From TrEMBL, chain A:
<keyword id="KW-0175">Coiled coil</keyword>
<keyword id="KW-0413">Isomerase</keyword>
<dbReference type="InterPro" id="IPR016176">
    <property type="entry name" value="Cbl-dep_enz_cat"/>
</dbReference>
<dbReference type="GO" id="GO:0031419">
    <property type="term" value="F:cobalamin binding"/>
</dbReference>
<protein>
    <submittedName>
        <fullName>Methylmalonyl-CoA mutase</fullName>
    </submittedName>
</protein>
<dbReference type="Pfam" id="PF01642">
    <property type="entry name" value="MM_CoA_mutase"/>
</dbReference>
<feature type="coiled-coil region">
    <location>
        <begin position="486"/>
        <end position="513"/>
    </location>
</feature>
From TrEMBL, chain B:
<dbReference type="Pfam" id="PF02310">
    <property type="entry name" value="B12-binding"/>
</dbReference>
<dbReference type="InterPro" id="IPR006158">
    <property type="entry name" value="Cobalamin-bd"/>
</dbReference>
<keyword id="KW-0479">Metal-binding</keyword>
<keyword id="KW-0846">Cobalamin</keyword>
<keyword id="KW-0170">Cobalt</keyword>
<dbReference type="InterPro" id="IPR006159">
    <property type="entry name" value="Acid_CoA_mut_C"/>
</dbReference>
<dbReference type="GO" id="GO:0046872">
    <property type="term" value="F:metal ion binding"/>
</dbReference>
From TrEMBL, chain C:
<dbReference type="InterPro" id="IPR003593">
    <property type="entry name" value="AAA+_ATPase"/>
</dbReference>
<dbReference type="InterPro" id="IPR027417">
    <property type="entry name" value="P-loop_NTPase"/>
</dbReference>
<dbReference type="InterPro" id="IPR005129">
    <property type="entry name" value="GTPase_ArgK"/>
</dbReference>
<keyword id="KW-0342">GTP-binding</keyword>
<keyword id="KW-0143">Chaperone</keyword>
<keyword id="KW-0378">Hydrolase</keyword>
<dbReference type="Pfam" id="PF03308">
    <property type="entry name" value="MeaB"/>
</dbReference>
């Protein structure tokens, strides 16, 4: 059918709509365009812009067969108060056939403080496991063969130290570093922009990250050295386009830093992975996943001249949107998570964590976690969504939306380039301000009723307070501090002092890779707080840029 | 006379989730309050001392890590020890319903859980500020 | 609590309450100021101003730490704009000075402009006095330098520092709105960013113009600038100022250039002390303050009386009907009142 014919039909349709609207007005606050037709994607070249799975520009997915071969990895992020408790859970999971572990750390660990630091009071073991030294890491992986499992660690500012501890535990088990498999999040830029668990200023932090890239490319080649995360940017209130734009801008900054440090793009780009949020608007999310792959492929090919296909593939882990869970009528969250799961799967994610219904109230109970995992399995096995690759491709709306999100993302990336890149944009507070403005707009839309959240601003009911929420035992902190004191009394404190002095000197020499020095300190049982303390002395601490 | 309600918005504890605190800060400003925003990782001692120097009428705190049973009462006690008896202290974040009675007992005037419109916080402050 | 007694004893809450009374124009504020006045006049007051985003708060934080290291106590008044629409304000300077909160030798107070800028400079001056009477050795007044109103506030200072950063687009255009004239000391913050040297060069040129005349290799922009700023230097000479404001490059976030900045501030203070300019400035300030109080009180008194007797509305109606004019009315009012 020719475009003229379609246009003629559309004109006729539009005229009829005018009449219909005069009698039955449309709901307020809808997207501008009511209907999509072939005319909306008439300029989209199928071969160049959409293409085929496993082929450039990867709009339809990074693998040729996608879920027809194997489903996405169903990876559930979990944290337990102490190393011993977590170890018990990990061993149970491995006995049940799991090959991937996922570690959540408590906040003092994430910010480089020991459990006995006054600032850690009330936080030890609360949102994950507390790790103070190699001794805790030995307990965490006791009787677990690090040569066989892959371990994902949600750790950023002190990622180098936790990775060093992991390598040191493997050494003690007799597992060489080049056999180790796993991921560290290691994405400091989004910590400044959205998540808040930063330690050092951006420039020394970027040095630590490139030190890790370099060290791992030589010594721990199977390790995924970074997971560039949009998840937290979205949680902080960004839009879908902002989520992928700011994250890809961060990715560009990491690549540039690594190249500046002397690495070749194809030596590390294949080890980069991404982390997206799966939000409520199903079709917008699917379009976001598709657009993000296309943008990244173009960035890698056109900007960095990558040659290996793997360097151009945006591989992504996804988590459903925690901020979209409601404390009101929490069982409704099961439905939200199911829709978000559908979006992530139709968007072509490589792995997925599903949130539990009670997470707007507390850490999830075991029963809630089970439902969340079952949600993924139902989508995988029963829904049919995983049976055909990229099933929404060719939808006039989804393709047009994919184009629109891509265009908005480029506009942001270009703007950030003008400012001088992601690091400069964060230092100026530009990215933070854009996210805050979106968050505020969202909240005002909910309060004005322009946006409906079921159970929150519409369809509310009187509710009994929910029962059976998980509570973390308050004695965890005390016991952890006692263990730490006992360890410090036992270790060779002279060796610790020497290792820390050596680390300090290395920090002061910008050309030195810090990883071997950190590993050296970790082996002497220097604590996380001591090691980060030395780095704080030399590097200083980041001061947040707040421009409300 | 040019009296304005002054509010200290702070995040005690170590969690970095400040979306709520920032949205509330802006909403309070738009409601005509003077908002002193002190940001992440504030110790109870810092919060109490900042409240004293700024002579605020209200302290609004947000915690999402679960450290509220420890940190909220600590702030209340420190503020009262400094002789600021009339400061209205409120909290918010991921806080289980079952924890709220103990927090109120400890002197937290009101606790706002997820889904609360900012207008409810504004109204509460207007009704209760001294 | 007797606020004055407690304040003079070093009670921080009393100082805080005194500033609130000043800011909110409570009736007791006048009494508080009367009783504090004899205890003032000891502090060194440093004004810090510059465009938004120049890093003034971070710089204030570092300077305060440096003064603390010298054993001096510090007071900081940080002023942020109030929204003209809602009357609310985000007072966000404190967040960059969180590290000072637990130092008992430092007291930080954030203030909103609250609409009436004339009133603000008066209130700021009183808040400075409260901190002075409390015993602070150095008092910082930090304000966004965007217009004449802020310039007035900074006039309460002994030494005024102007903070600029490179890469703000039309650098010099941003500066020309008055803040160059008030700088005793210039600081180029974020000096590791592109354009720092260019900014220093341009500033030097403006400040040197009178001493060195036209320079050999001037670009057209520099020439245009030279013309624009010629009157400035002329004005300063007319005041008998032989002070050449120094320019210091600083990276406040990394603590670089802080010592040198303090040296510049101290040099300036020494200069104005030795030349008698300090005394001149303080005399002028005292006079201005007294006149401010006088004008404000007379204004309030007369307005109050006119309102109470209903004459105000009467006069307005007459003027509006063109039966008389404002000048005649005021002349008559003055005559009546002064007779009383």
């Amino acid at each position: 059918m020719s475009n003229e014919k379609i246009q003629a039909g559309l004109d006729k349709y539009n005229a009829s709509v005018e009449k219909a609207i005069s009698r039955f007005p449309e709901r307020p606050n809808l997207p501008e365009q009511r209907l999509y037709t072939p005319l909306d994607i008439k300029d989209t070249d199928y071969a160049d812009e959409i293409g085929y799975p496993g082929m450039y520009p990867y709009t339809r997915g990074v693998q040729p067969t996608m879920y027809r071969g194997r489903f996405w990895t169903m990876r559930m992020y979990a944290g337990f108060s102490t190393a011993a408790e977590s170890n018990k859970r990990y061993r149970y999971l491995i006995e049940s056939g799991a090959t991937g572990l996922s570690c959540a750390f408590d906040l003092p660990t994430q910010i480089g403080y020991d459990s006995d630091d006054p600032i850690s009071e009330g936080e030890v073991g609360k949102v994950g496991v507390a790790i103070d030294s190699l001794a805790d890491m030995e307990i965490l992986f006791d009787q677990i063969d690090l040569g066989k499992v892959s371990t994902s660690m949600t750790i950023n500012a002190p990622a180098s130290v936790l990775l060093a501890m992991y390598i040191a535990v493997a050494e003690k088990q007799g597992v060489p570093a080049d056999q180790l498999k796993g991921t560290i999040q290691n994405d400091i830029l989004k910590e400044y922009a959205a998540r808040g668990t930063y330690i050092f200023p951006p420039r020394p932090s970027m040095r630590l990250i490139t030190n890790i890239f370099e060290y791992c490319s030589k010594n721990v080649p199977k390790w995924n050295t970074i997971s560039i995360s949009g998840y937290h940017i979205r949680e902080a209130g960004s839009t879908a386009s902002q989520e992928i734009a700011f994250t890809i801008a961060d990715g560009i900054a990491y690549c540039e830093a690594a190249i500046k440090a002397g690495l070749h793009i194809d030596d590390f780009a294949g080890r980069l992975s991404f982390f997206w949020n799966a939000h409520n608007n199903v079709l917008e999310e699917v379009a976001k996943f598709r657009a993000s792959r296309r943008v990244w492929a173009k960035v890698m090919k056109e900007r960095f001249h990558a040659e290996k296909p793997k360097s151009m593939m945006l591989r992504v882990h996804t988590q459903t949107a925690g901020s979209m869970l409601t404390a009101q009528q929490p069982n409704n969250n099961i439905i939200r998570v199911a829709l978000q799961t559908a979006a992530a799967v139709m968007g072509g994610t490589q792995s997925l964590h599903t949130n539990s219904r009670d997470e707007a109230l507390a850490l999830p109970t075991e029963e809630s976690v089970m439902i969340a995992l079952r949600t993924q399995q139902i989508v995988a096995y029963e829904s049919g969504l995983a049976d055909v690759i990229d099933p929404l491709a060719g939808s006039y709306y989804v393709e047009a939306l994919t184009n629109k999100i891509e265009k908005e993302a480029w506009e942001y990336i270009n703007k950030i380039d003008e400012i001088g890149g992601a690091v400069a944009a964060i230092e100026k507070g530009y990215i933070q301000k854009e996210i805050q403005d979106s968050a505020y707009k969202w909240q005002m839309d909910v309060e004005s009723g322009a946006k409906t959240i079921v159970g929150v601003n519409k369809f509310q009911i009187e509710e009994e307070p929910p029962k059976g929420l998980l509570k973390v035992d308050a004695s965890v902190g005390v016991a952890q501090c006692e263990r730490l004191a006992a360890m410090k009394a036992k270790r060779d404190n002279e060796a610790v002092k020497a290792a820390l002095a050596d680390l300090k000197a290395a920090c002061q020499d910008e050309n030195e890779n810090l990883m071997p020095h950190i590993l050296n300190a970790v082996r002497t049982y220097a604590t996380l707080g001591e090691i980060c303390g030395v780095m704080r002395e030399v590097f200083g601490e980041y001061e947040a840029h707040v421009n409300l | 006379m040019e009296k304005r309600v002054r509010v200290l918005v702070a995040k005690p504890g170590l969690d970095g989730h400040d979306r709520g605190a920032k949205v509330v800060a802006r909403a309070l400003r738009d409601a005509g309050f003077e908002v002193i925003y002190t940001g992440l990782r504030q110790t109870p001692e810092q919060i109490a001392e900042a409240a004293l120097q700024e002579d605020v009428n209200v302290i609004a705190m947000s915690i999402l890590s679960g450290a509220h049973p420890h940190l909220f009462p600590k702030v209340v006690n420190l503020v009262r020890e400094k002789g600021m008896d009339d400061v209205l202290i409120i909290g918010g974040g991921v806080i289980p319903e079952t924890d709220i009675p103990a927090l109120k007992e400890a002197g937290v005037a009101e606790v706002f859980t997820p889904g609360t419109p900012t207008s409810a916080i504004v109204d509460f402050i207007k009704a209760n500020v001294k | 609590m007797d606020i004055v007694e407690e304040l003079l004893k070093g009670n921080r809450l009393a100082l805080s309450r005194a500033i609130t009374a000043i800011e909110n124009e409570y009736d007791e504020a006048v009494d508080i100021m009367k009783r504090l006045y004899p205890h003032t006049g000891h502090a060194f007051v440093l004004g810090i101003t510059g465009p938004p985003g120049a890093g003034k708060s971070t710089l204030t934080d570092k300077l305060a730490k440096a003064y603390r290291a010298q054993g001096k106590t510090v007071g900081i008044i940080a002023i942020d704009p109030t929204s003209p629409f809602t009357g609310g304000a985000i007072l966000g300077d404190r967040i960059r000075m969180n590290g000072l909160t637990m130092d008992e030798g430092v007291f930080i107070r954030s203030m909103g402009t609250r609409g009436s800028l004339g009133g603000l400079s008066h209130k700021t001056a009183d808040a400075i006095k409260a901190m002075d009477a409390f015993g602070k050795d150095v008092i910082f007044v930090e304000t966004v330098g965007v217009g004449q109103s802020e310039v007035d506030i900074v006039k309460a200072a002994d030494t005024t520092m102007v903070v600029l950063i490179p890469g703000m687009g039309d650098d010099i255009q941003a500066i020309k709105a008055g803040i160059l004239e008030i700088g005793d000391v210039f600081t180029i913050n974020k000096a590791d960013h592109d354009g720092a040297d260019k900014l220093v060069r341009e500033l030097n040129m403006m400040l040197d113009l009178d001493a060195h005349g036209m320079q050999a290799e001037q670009t057209s922009t520099e020439k245009a600038l030279a013309d624009q700023f010629h009157h400035l230097n002329v004005a300063k000479h007319a005041e008998g100022m032989a002070w050449r404001p120094p320019i210091q490059k600083v990276i406040a976030s990394q603590n670089e250039g802080i010592t040198e900045t303090i040296e510049n501030i101290e040099k300036h203070f020494k200069y104005i002390s030795e030349t008698g300019i300090l005394q001149q400035r303080r005399t002028q300030r005292t006079k201005n303050e007294m006149l401010d109080v006088l004008h404000s009180n007379i204004g309030k008194y007369i307005t109050g009386k006119l309102s109470a007797t209903g004459k105000l509305d009467e006069y307005v109606a007459q003027i509006k009907a063109r039966e008389t004019d404002p000048y005649t009315v005021v002349a008559n009012i003055m005559q009546d009142m002064l007779k009383e």
